[in-house]
Amino acid sequence: MPKGSQLSQLKSALSHAGVTKPQQGSKRKRSKKEDVDKERRAAKLREIQQKMNLFDVQVTKVKHGVGGRKIKGAVGRPAQSKQAGIQQRTKTLLKEHQDKDRSGGIFDRRFGENDPTMTPEERMLERFTRERQRESKGAWFNLEEEDELTHYGQSLSKLDDYDNIGLGLDNGDEEDAGQIDSRTVQKVHFGGFESDEDDDEEGPERKKTKPEVMAEVIAKSKEHKYLRQMQQEKDEDLRHQLDQDLESMRSLLYTVDTERPADEAKLNAAVEAPNVQDREYDKAVRELAFEQRAKPKDRTKTEEELALEEKQALERAERKRQRRMQGEDTDSESENGRRKRLRQIGGDDLEDDFYGEDGFGPGLQEQADEPDEGEDGGSGGEGEDGEEGLEGEDEEEDSEEDGADAESEAEDSGSAEGDDNELVQKRKGKTGKPNAGKELPYTFPCPESYEEFLDILEDVEGEDVPTVVHRIRTFHHPSLAEDNKFKLQRLTGVLIDYILHIMTPPSPRFNLLSALIPHLFALSKTYPTAAAQHFVEKLVLMQKNLRLGLSRGATKPDVKTWPSLPELMLLRTAGLIWSASDLNHPVIGPARLLMASYLGLCRVRDLCDICSGLFICTLWLQFEDYSKRFVPEVVTFLANTLLHLSPHKITDVASLPGSFPSPDFGMRSELRLDTREARKLSFGTADLPAILLGTRDEQMKVDLLGTCLALLERFADQYKSLDGFLELYSPVQFIFAQLDMNRLPGMLRDRVATISSVLSKLLKFSKQQRVPLSLQMHKPIPIPSYVPKFEERSSNYLRNRDPDHERNEAAKLRRQVKQEKKGAIRELRKDARFLAAVKQKEQQEKDRVYNERLKKAHTSIEPERAEEKAMLREKAKEKRRAGRR
């Protein structure tokens, strides 16, 4: 480009491009060539404009230029690139913004496609019918179809003008020559007015309606389907006949000729011998083919249906039992359902027909009709876990509490249990010993209270009580009557009272308790709210008894503080029925507090108290098997029990390590083992009922001491993960070290040595896990340095040429990622600015339209408002004038 001013540069460029030419006269006509030259001229002008616009060129000065080398990006045109980016965003981003809230798609509008009630055959038939209807509608005015334009059912294209018009031109009979036939006179002339109904059939067919077309299509479809079925049945019959005739055909193929010689017959028999196995195989295949297949079973019955069937079975069995008691015949019944009367015994009757046909009397024969124990639920046992009550359901909390009012007023549970025993003894005194041979009824009323339940069990053996409970639950299933659920809720409290009764000394029945627990478990799961209320009532009563005993004096021997055998069994039953691992539970929570109160507040006075405490410790072990919560009262009681029973060298309380309380230390010397007798004994399982009944001997002490050692070992294994295990079991280890091993029995001595070694290892591991506290570890803070940093390679070219190839490639990739990231951020910002500008324009357009509407509204209202103001002014003037007058 030549130097000089911009105007001179523009003139030089225009003349060099040949754009400037001398002007000619305006009268000359324009040619097509001039139009093409005009377009070329405009293109050259645009090119010159771009070259002359120095503001659209951005040049980056190269620091070290090399001749002939072109550097990418040295010269750029930001305005053009910006315009290109705007155009690209207009094509893509703007279209996405405009279609953002739109929704489109393909809709399947075929008939019956979205109807799940139609089968594929029905859909295809309906589509075919509609397609034929559309074709028939479009063919009404189609003149190309010859069959459509008819006259009396004949095509007009094939109809001659002089055929069948009655002139008789082609008739060969001379008699009728030149005469019009009778058919023409009847149909065409006036004689056609008197035609009968048969004439309508020969006329043109009328167009069928849509219901007629549909009915015809459906009828044809059904006809084809019926024909296919008939053909399949014929084929099946034919195949079956061929299968039956196969054996006869085989016999024809292998028939032995009797006229042949004997040697030839023998030869044929030897040849046919291997075919016998084939025939047997074919016979077996046919038998398997025609074998009767398994039939579908009956559906699974619901819980309500099963309960109703069991109730009806019990009612039928009870009716049969009542008839047997009355001497009626329960087996022989007439065909119409009436019972036959017993035959009258005559004076000559020898009673030779006493036994029936099978050789058994009526009483023995009736046993077969009696429902077996599996049908009724069995005669009690631990297998009966309640078939209809395992699914718990929430019930209302306002259940009646008739059975608990009697015991809530009592001061302790022992007096209530004594009253129950006296009540049972009085009832037995009236009736005597129950008849062992008497048959057990099948239906019982649901007891409303504990006394009614005892009346029901008055003549029932102990092993039949679970059967009675099961029949009561079956006969009063909740689905059979509306108020049955309330009766079963009250039955839960009755069973709890009965469990306390059967566990009362001197003859507790543990087997019966194990048989009744499944029924109580099923009722508690079915009605958890009512069952929890019954259990909590008993626990509250036990807590009142404990508080009353402590107020009278915990060390007095005649005061009852520790729980008795029925109360211990109640706590054990609660742990079996309810979940003991929950943090908060309406039954187990109060039971935990009560057991901890027993261990922490009650004082040890004799072996019976130690036995109750050890049983409570065993319950704690079962309760906390999963949750492993720490109970300090347990370890304290076990340590004190070890001090009470075992011989040791500790003389006073001050020499005891740790901080656990030992208020009864040294006060009960009679509880300690007698070393002379104990050396000959070996410990076993403690007899809980015997100890609670007051049995005192050295064997009992040895058994209790062995139980205490086992519990200490179990709790040590359970609490070994606690942070305070070292402080918890260090005093116990000290007591083990102070025991007099020579005065203990041999088995206990080995047991103590084993537990002591285990505790030593656990305490050692617990001590090793403790680390002294230290400050937080962090990286040291360096001292600030003001020495300048010198680089051996100051050139970027050398810095980017690492001799390590992998490290150099990794650095190159990092640089590319950084550049791409910066470019992506830059493009996202441009997209955001573009969208913001588009949204701003849209908002401006909306504001403009809104303002125009508002202006139009104001324009339409202004004349009316002006008229209204003028009218008001006139009225005001009139008022003023009227006032002057």
Automatic annotation (TrEMBL):
Entry superkingdom: Eukaryota
Protein name: Nop14-like protein
Native organism: Thelephora ganbajun (Ganba fungus)
